[in-house]
Specification:
heterodimer; A: mainly alpha; two-stranded antiparallel ribbon; globular; B: mainly alpha; 3 helices; elongated
Chain lengths: 507, 71
């Protein structure tokens, strides 16, 4: 397969996914914050909180409008650029994505209408329920998308059928195994809590901007309080789920973990690298195994094999896996030929041979064992950016909660400025998280089963390159449109004080 | 019938009273037009369009069963 075709197809998919991922976290996070604010309004019966909620709903609306349906382009790309992959996983992707589509359409489109059009038209309780159900619908959508993604990273609960050439779920039990795989659970928790963090950073950052300009002070203080406390909770959730995610990656994708750490030679007491030579002794072993002593393989160990796996078997070398992959591919061909010729006995033998070597199926497409190593510098630094910025946000939330408790918020302009700058940084952080998860698993489209060079459709490379640049232009224009509308909304502000003054004059 | 009428007017009033929403809907419709009327029609034709399921199986099996590492 033409290397430039693979690279341009990956670049195009990455561009689309990363663009889509700009909008999702804020939808997930701001939705919860709106729900909390509206709950305060309903419990206290204070109109002021209703106006606070309405302002954040405007911001939510802009983000939602620009982000909605951008994920559909990924589905177009599956069929066009990744047709082999698309056919192979059809059953696994079909069910979760169909559920996602139905749930997203009915829950979000129904309740979002009540959320925006229903003020003064439905009861407070029903409106509040609609706001929470809109957020729940978005979170539920994220669950099914992440189930599909988690299966690619950790393909469990399915069976490869050489007759249909598809991975299939044979029973409701296997559906549950896919839907609730440990990878799906940790991915969901980490992704959604990262979304909460994004929502909190945006609310806190915009509130800080108003406070620095001495505008909308009451509104900014209230929003800052809700945002920073929620942000602190989100930080805890991100850290806990990130820790579980690290253990899961260590078990299912050891090469990805080694790339996160730039670890070439593993050990029983592997250190955690901060940057350069600054390391925490034994840190990686503790994080990856939750034990004081435990072997964490490095890149060279994974390629050479021979170390003991958690199930006490010896790890195979990359060459051995590649040989067994070729046997699996050959068995698939022989099985299909034998079955077509009506040679049942040979078909049975070949099918057994295929099943014996199925765990290494994808290795048959690996050209060189070095191709099994993801781009280490990119993943290494993306991981540090993600963790470093995540830690910064936690510190900022903690300081903001403390200064608010001491009623000294406006005495810390530097902290407020940092809070404003955290808005672009949180997007860099979440994109770095995407790079860790998706670039870190290269070359696999489906871990151990299908590398990208076998997943890609046989298209003309220039055609893919052209669409990449068309997307780049369209996405950039849409993003500019969103930012312009968003800046206009924020500059105008909630105008709660002005509305109050007008009301008083009328009275 | 009354319920349907109420729902219809709920949406109608909601759309009529939109301010910022008008701009956002214009943006959504423009985006959907670009996606479905341009990208989908001219740039994203499914690679296995027109094939039966059996042909797709054979096509993918042929593509997958071809070892690329020269063994």
């Amino acid at each position: 397969m033409d290397a430039s075709l693979i690279d341009w197809s990956r670049a195009q998919f990455a561009l689309t996914a990363m663009y889509h991922w700009l909008f999702v976290p804020l939808t997930l996070g701001l939705g919860v914050i709106m729900g909390i604010m509206e709950t305060i309004y309903v419990v206290r019966g204070d109109e002021y909180w209703r106006r606070v909620t309405q302002f954040w709903m405007k911001v939510f609306g802009v983000n939602f409008a620009v982000g909605v349906a951008t994920g559909l382009i990924l589905e177009f790309e599956f069929g066009t650029n990744w047709s082999n992959y698309s056919w192979l996983v059809g059953d696994i992707f079909g069910a979760p994505l169909a559920i996602e589509g139905i749930v997203a359409f009915f829950m979000e489109s129904t309740f979002i209408a009540v959320m925006y059009f229903g003020w003064n038209k439905v009861s407070r309780g029903f409106h509040l329920a609609s706001t929470w159900l809109t957020t729940l619908g978005a979170t539920f959508s994220a669950w099914w998308i992440l189930v599909a993604n988690a299966w690619m990273q950790y393909p469990v609960g399915t069976h490869f059928d050489p007759d249909t050439v598809r991975n299939e779920m044979n029973s409701f039990g296997s559906f549950l195994e896919v839907a609730f795989s440990p990878m799906a659970v940790v991915k969901f928790c980490h992704t959604v809590s990262a979304g909460w963090l994004t929502g909190a950073v945006v609310v806190v950052g915009i509130s800080a901007w108003y406070l620095l300009r001495r505008r909308e002070e009451r509104f900014a203080r209230s929003s800052m309080l809700v945002g920073s406390i929620f942000g602190l909770v989100a930080c805890g959730a991100v850290m806990l789920s990130g820790d579980s995610s690290g253990v899961m990656v260590g078990k299912a994708q050891p090469m990805k973990l080694a790339a996160f750490e730039g670890l070439y030679d593993g050990s029983e007491h592997a250190p955690l690298t901060i940057v350069g030579d600054l390391k925490i002794p034994n840190g990686l072993t503790v994080l990856a195994t939750h034990r004081w002593t435990g072997f964490v393989p490095g890149i060279n160990d994974i390629l050479e094999g021979g170390y003991t796996l958690p199930d006490s078997t010896k790890a195979l070398s990359a060459e051995e896996k590649m040989s067994r992959g070729v046997i699996a591919l050959d068995a698939l061909t022989q099985y299909r030929l034998a079955r077509a010729a009506g040679r049942t006995e040979k078909a049975v033998i070949m099918r057994e041979k295929l099943e014996d070597n199925m765990p290494y199926f994808g290795y048959g497409h690996i050209l060189d064992k070095q191709d099994l190593v993801p781009p280490v510098p990119l993943v290494f630094w993306a991981f540090r950016i993600m963790v470093g910025l995540g830690s910064l946000f936690c510190l900022v939330f903690l300081l903001l909660v403390i200064v608010q408790y001491k009623k000294q918020l406006t005495r810390w302009p530097l902290l407020l400025r940092v809070a404003v700058w955290c808005i672009p940084l949180v997007y860099i952080c979440s994109q770095a998280g995407w790079v860790c998860a998706e670039v870190g698993r290269q070359p696999w489209a489906i871990q151990d089963l299908l590398p990208v060079n076998a997943a890609v459709s046989a298209l003309q490379s220039p055609a893919v390159r052209i669409t990449f640049f068309i997307f780049l232009v369209i996405f950039t224009l849409l993003l500019i449109a969103e930012l312009r509308i968003l800046f206009r909304v924020v500059k105008k502000g909630p105008q709660i004080e002005e509305q109050d003054n007008e009301q008083k004059q009328t009275d | 019938m009354n319920l349907l009428n109420t729902i219809f007017h709920f949406y109608l009033d909601g759309f009529r009273q939109m301010t910022l929403g008008r701009t956002l809907w214009a943006l959504i419709l423009l985006k959907l037009f670009i996606m479905f009327a341009i990208l989908r029609l001219f740039f994203f034709r499914p690679a296995m369009r027109g094939m039966s399921d059996e042909q797709k199986q054979q096509h993918v099996a042929t593509q997958l069963a071809r070892p690329q590492n020269g063994h």
